User: What shape does this take?
Amino acid sequence: MTALTASALRLAASAVAVPEYDRTGLTAGIAHFGVGGFHRAHQALVIDELLRTGRARDWAIMGVGVRPEDSRMRAILRAQDGLYTLVEKHADGTRTARVIGSVLGMLTVHDDGAGAVLDLLTAPTTRIVSLTVTEGGYNINQATGEFLLTSPYVAADLEDGAEPRTVFGLIVEALRRRRDAGAPAFTVMSCDNLQDNGRIARRAILTFAEAKDPELARWIDAQVRFPNSMVDRITPATTAEDVADTARLTGLSDEWPVVCEPFFQWVLEDTFSTGRPPYERTRVQVVDDVEPYELMKLRLLNASHQALCYFGHLLGYRLVHDATRDPLIADLLRRYMAEEATPTLRPVPGIDLAAYRDELIRRFSNPEVRDTIARLCAESSDRIPKWLVPVIRERLDAGGDVRRAAAVVASWARYATGVDEQGEPIEVVDNRREQVMAAARDDSDPLAFVRDPDLFGDLATRPGFTEPYLHALRVLRSDGARALLTQLAGDAS
Assistant: This one.
């Protein structure tokens, strides 16, 4: 089969939307760290939509990678002239495919060197540096929010004369060069699943800069904008089956297509250093205050993903839609969202929260997306403290009930023992794997798992949490996940 390249677009199936605009004259106005499926399913899509209307020709995207594994994406994008296929999977089994042309290519520190990346970041045409580096990529203490200067890669970047290798080192060095050249600062735009992601990115960059050059830190503080944003689109990892299906659908061979659900929401704070694309001409909601939307997404969608994944795995499910269709799991999600998470939210302009909750259940139940339980269970130490713990803390402060949120934490503790209810091993994927598994297996202290202040703050000292948590853990250990979910379904609100 013919490989996906610019010259092969004319051979694509007639139902596939391909870039018909002239890509040869595009300018990279955006440098993006973290070119994965999530970025390619939202930001790159939006720029492509603008390009198809004749807009944003100076806002094309050049990807940047700082990890050795980014070399594969770089190679694929180069071989495919920056093109890739985006496939939306509808619940009725239909597929909608389009080839995205907004990405010009990708540089990596390992393949091209820090110098090439810095040339991109200091180019006067680069006006936005955007990030999808995952929740754990910001190098912060989960409980305090402090940027960790002692992390090995960060500490290496802080050495005098060091060639930067991290996101923070590269951004700060690029800003230093722009300041010294009298060039304007770029915007740093985080698109990761973090509450106040712009503020977190700002704290990380300023803390690094302060340690490197306090005067530069003051300049960055005054000149660089860090807009908050919220992106909502379920984008599972691409499988070999997806690659084969995409080839059959389009008639072209794409080595790394992106698959996603049809739903799309991107809410973006309107604060930029040196201009931005006309996002309001697309599906992006450009607003003055993102917080109500991001709290809604993090505490309803993302926390519900954690609510279903550990219980789902323990019950033997491996795909998200199968777990969601279990009536007991669906009941847990609905009642957690309505009774515990929603009371912690502010009003969300233009959003009917009851309808949004119902839509989440439908989205999770989409059998075509085939999102995996394993994806949702991974890196829980980066997720639970940001998505679920704030709900628990605010509910406790208000004197509210947290039995379902506490049960979710208990289900994580049971999952983290590394053995399922059939005695089969669980592959725990977590950057704190050894610590969380040791705590989960500690039979001498029932609260061992929740005593880590970096993950749970002071929750281990608060009876409003520890009582339902300990009850849930006892039931999970003695009678199993279905017994606990049955109890929770029968509890009066």
